[in-house]
């Protein structure tokens, strides 16, 4: 670690501006004192994704005192035996590595021999036993581990130990240093090199970061080069894994920041050496991208395998490093917003508990933090201004449309993201004044049945499909995006006329985790236009195939349907290969040419949905899993008969919850009719007048616009 970094750590640790960060470091270091009797000899960790309640998906409670007893904090179920005991071992050793790192940091700020001795003792324990740990783990998509069940976890643990060791090694006796290097660092490097992933992937970023860090600590350029250089080395991960606009290709903010965190862990040891990666323009772009996609309400969208939508300020601590590296004003503004602005004090909760963001209390603040004046003038509305700016990028394949104080939309038309993709090209999310309306819940822990059973499938998304079958991997395409006086709109497309996708030669997909079937999609094309006017969101989907197909369009609302029960009959229609148990209260009926449905939104207010389909279709309603899976979304699936072309048009309007939904005047509603020149006229009549749009599907991009506003 650079001397100037250590100096900054010591100076920040003594500065009153970082009192909260020092206090938190002290608290976290105290965790080390709670570490009880842990077996280092013969330790064999299990995959911690299995450390979840089977009933509700909650993470089980880890207790240092109870290595054989694992309690669900939600329902109280007690789990024992394997795999839970093995998961406990993994969590324990993770915490020990963190304790070593935290103790080393605190010792650097306020020297304390007892802390240094504890950290040293753990490293020497590992040095004594590491070579004897048995290679094990048969986790899908993952190489094995020695202490852990997968290579990834081994790399995580080692990155913490490596940072701790780099701070402490100068104080260890020569003989102790040799034991740790020969018994722990070198054999771990050898193991990780042997299990490098031959693909571009977030795991590979972690593993090559750990190898690179070990090479630097060992002063062994061959080891560092095994981490950094060549095909699938860390530099290749940066070059091919980060898309042109800075989004990590797996298309999930969870993995975006996960990869970024690993790069920062590596950078902490690499800065100032020949292996420094900070001058990469793509690393800088990784910091910048989320600032452009943040949605009204300050949230980053849930996409692919990610947790539920999170606040951007939840990641503020990483921007301490961004600001230190690049001096970008936007990073400073985000930090000021997080610590002093309107976002300060807001809480985000997950299964581990709630975090608020007002405190500048992170390790990153201690390591990278600089002066950050609390200037009212510069904070407050900064984040809001970012959230209200539309954004479109063909590279990440995300288009954000925003009408301030009205609708916002997020349209997904990006490259296939590999293992963590949700097969939802042309997926749509909608919100109104920051409230979620059409949502993507991300997913839950991978050991919970709803993950592989529901969340990862096309049908779980607001996306078109053939019969509810999963979309085979393809890259989406942005056709166009425009701002007009009446509103903003974008068109995207995806097709299965040719085989192949951007990342095909860079990733590895085991057959058992490829749920799609190419056949239903052969020759299919989907196009989607989303338009936002002030009080209206208009969604048009065109589905075409060379041979007749049953097309489906699913819509999942964060709320409840308000529909009379008597018109709907129990429905057993099967969608693709989806298990019917995920569609509860499944009911359906034939659809009229025009339909109006209402839903009460969970976040307040009511949504009116006017729908139209160009061919005879049926409608299914169901309650389907939200995230966490104990909650549900209100799902509508429109399905056509087997046809070669179908067009779905939906108009969304927000209604005040207080106002009783007036029985629509007979003339209110949505009308779609063909025009003489082969196009379409879309008319939405409301109490306040009528809005007319014209649409003409040309070969590669459509002609679309509002014709008048009466
Ligand atoms: Zn439970
Ligand atoms: Zn999803």
UniProtKB/TrEMBL annotation:
Residue stretches in coiled coil: none
Keyword Protein biosynthesis applies: no
Keyword line: Lyase, Periplasm, Signal
Region (Disordered) residue spans: 659-680
Localization per Swiss-Prot or TrEMBL: Periplasm
Transmembrane segments: none
Record-linked InterPro entries: Alginate_lyase_dom, Chondroitin_lyas, Hepar_II_III_C
Domain Alginate lyase residue range list: 170-293
One annotated Gene Ontology cellular component of this protein: periplasmic space
Domain Heparinase II/III-like C-terminal: 392-482
Keyword DNA repair: no
GO molecular function: lyase activity
Stated name of the protein: Alginate lyase
Organism of provenance: Paenibacillus methanolicus
